[in-house]
Amino acid sequence: MEATTTIRVRYQETDQMGIVYHTNYIVWFEIGRTEWLRQSGATYKELENLGVLLPVTNVDCKYHASARYDDECIISTTVESFTPARMKFFYQILRKSDGKLLAEGHTEHCFLTKEGKIVRLQKAAPQIAQIIAESSM
Amino acid sequence: MEATTTIRVRYQETDQMGIVYHTNYIVWFEIGRTEWLRQSGATYKELENLGVLLPVTNVDCKYHASARYDDECIISTTVESFTPARMKFFYQILRKSDGKLLAEGHTEHCFLTKEGKIVRLQKAAPQIAQIIAESSM
Amino acid sequence: MEATTTIRVRYQETDQMGIVYHTNYIVWFEIGRTEWLRQSGATYKELENLGVLLPVTNVDCKYHASARYDDECIISTTVESFTPARMKFFYQILRKSDGKLLAEGHTEHCFLTKEGKIVRLQKAAPQIAQIIAESSM
Amino acid sequence: MEATTTIRVRYQETDQMGIVYHTNYIVWFEIGRTEWLRQSGATYKELENLGVLLPVTNVDCKYHASARYDDECIISTTVESFTPARMKFFYQILRKSDGKLLAEGHTEHCFLTKEGKIVRLQKAAPQIAQIIAESSM
Q: Which keywords does the record carry (chains A, B, C, D) (predicted)?
């Protein structure tokens, strides 16, 4: 499953180069995976309510072109891998007006209890694990 | 007591006007009150460990001149009022190179338990209440 | 004219109290005035392209209740005053699910050239001045 | 040359997991390279004044442990490669109290004119190119 969602660039997200400051694309990745989960049928909020956190363990981002203030950007999110203890998302950020690819990257996550212990999602939240497994295919 | 501390403007804090985005001064206010508490002898971290939160209930800020990337700025913080249930800070942001006043404002706070109930600081954290009372004079 | 727009709280906007960090409401004010201008028929981008900046000279915000991660919030924006050299916006942030008022405040702006000189909007961008005047009524 | 600088975690940088939100480490990388340049004898501000921008073309970050509010963190920065048209930094973020490695990663940059054209640093800013070449060894 690919989830897409659209955001509009905030003035606050620009920097003095006149373009979006580079870490904001990675904040948009967070919006992307939130929407991927919602569109799969689960929500990240539910997951946290069940006591499971999804901290980022790795991130990478490659920048191709710049978003500018007030641009609408499409965040496209897919799951690259989903194992009992980890999951990895892939994102592309596209300018809506012309479809140009602006940035792309990955985040990797482990499943953690609120006490900071690694947990298998299948054990901690079996229904959500099932939903994610099906949507990841 | 007046507490002063110095920060250096991050590129991330600028916007496409080429100056610091306006809400960052209010983030610097947060640094100011953290340092005021530290210099008084308490810390905000201790306060939270005792179960007391200090959420912002009001903020105002007046902008006089702009900070720019890499500028060093001085945050000057004083307590304007301290009552059993509330406290109010006053801040001034000055450019270090020439002492120019860039922005000034206030934040007001109540004392809250982690469950979201209003609490008297004197009751919840009497030692810290004492320290703040003395340093506020 | 009242302009409304909806945002969804990002994880990045929360803090360790488990609620939205207070300056983010003021970033949402920026989204509010961007949308007010768009709905009036002008855009802030056009204004900047005509060489007119709208820096914030004053901000205040009063916090009533907290937004949380993934909440949808409505930003309602109106113009409180519009004079040849200045304008003032009023904002309310409401939780979408129950309409509860979370925060409200103002920003004041002057009209500035890119060289930092105060300018009358009527002179620098007469068509946009006309649009704003009509929509402010 | 290795440049080190220390920052203190802001409340604003935490999220509802009670730890620093992951993109902030990458903002700290920016502080790291700013300080590396300063300690080498150049400054990024000078570079921009000479018309050269250093946009990020790639970033990666690996997270090992979490920084928390009010922690002091050391940013250690080195240059991994410096070619006529590109440069790559390597960063480590360490907790000051016990030296624990919290995160590490890289940023890659090209040299760009303000008009967005790729430029050789040696040509656009020969003195700074010389300083960077010597400090990179």
A: Hydrolase
B62-82 tens-digit pLDDT: 999 999 999 999 999 999 999
Q: Is A60 a catalytic residue?
A: no
Could you tell me if D31 and B10 are in contact, meaning their C-beta atoms sit under 8 angstroms apart? yes
Within 10 A of D52 (CB to CB), how many other CB atoms are there? 21
Residues 6+ apart with CB under 8 A from D39: D1, D3, D135
Residues 6+ apart with CB under 8 A from B80: B88, B89, B90, B106
Instruction: pLDDT band for B137, please (50, 70, 90 cuts).
Output: confident
Instruction: Give the chain D residue nearest A110 (alpha carbons).
Output: D63
Catalytic positions of C, written as ranges: 15
Interface contact A26-D23, CB threshold 8 A: yes
Instruction: Give the closest-approach CA distance of A44 to chain C in angstroms.
Output: 9
B86 burial via Cβ count (<10 Å: 0-12, 13-18, 19+): middle
Residue D137 has pLDDT above 90, yes or no: no
Tens-digit pLDDT profile for residues D23-49:
999 999 999 999 999 999 999 999 999
The dihedral region occupied by A111, where left means phi > 0, alpha psi between -120 and 50, and beta the remainder, is beta
Within 8 A of D17 by CB-CB distance, chain A residues are: 53, 55
Neighbouring chains to B with at least 3 Cβ pairs closer than 8 Å: A, C, D
pTM: 0.97
The verdict on ipTM greater than 0.85 is yes
DSSP letter at C28 equals H
**Regions in chain A scoring below 50 on pLDDT:** none
* pLDDT at residue A137 in the model: 83
How far from chain centre, in Å, is Cα A112?
17
Cβ(D1)–Cβ(D134) below 8 Å:
no
Which chains, if any, share at least 3 CB pairs under 8 A with chain A?
B, C, D
Among partner residues C30, C44, C70, which is closest to A34 by beta-carbon distance?
C70
| Contacting residues of B for D70, CB less than 8 Å apart | 34, 43-45
Mean pLDDT of D122-133: 96
Q: Which residues of A touch D (CB under 8 A)?
A: 17, 19, 22-24, 26-27, 53, 55-63, 66
CA-closest candidate to residue D23, choices A79, C12, A76, A15: C12
Instruction: Assess contact for D33 and D107: CB atoms under 8 A.
Output: yes
All residues at 6 or more sequence positions from D65 whose CB lies less than 8 Å from its CB, including other chains = D95, D100, D101, D102
Residue with tokens 């002057």: C110
pLDDT in tens, B108-134: 999 999 999 999 999 999 999 999 999
d(CA D137, CA D134): 6
Cβ–Cβ pairs < 8 A, chains B and D: 31
Q: What is the DSSP track for D9-75? A: --GGGB-TTSSB-THHHHHHHHHHHHHHHHHHT--HHHHHHTTEE--EEEEEEEE-S---TT-EEEE
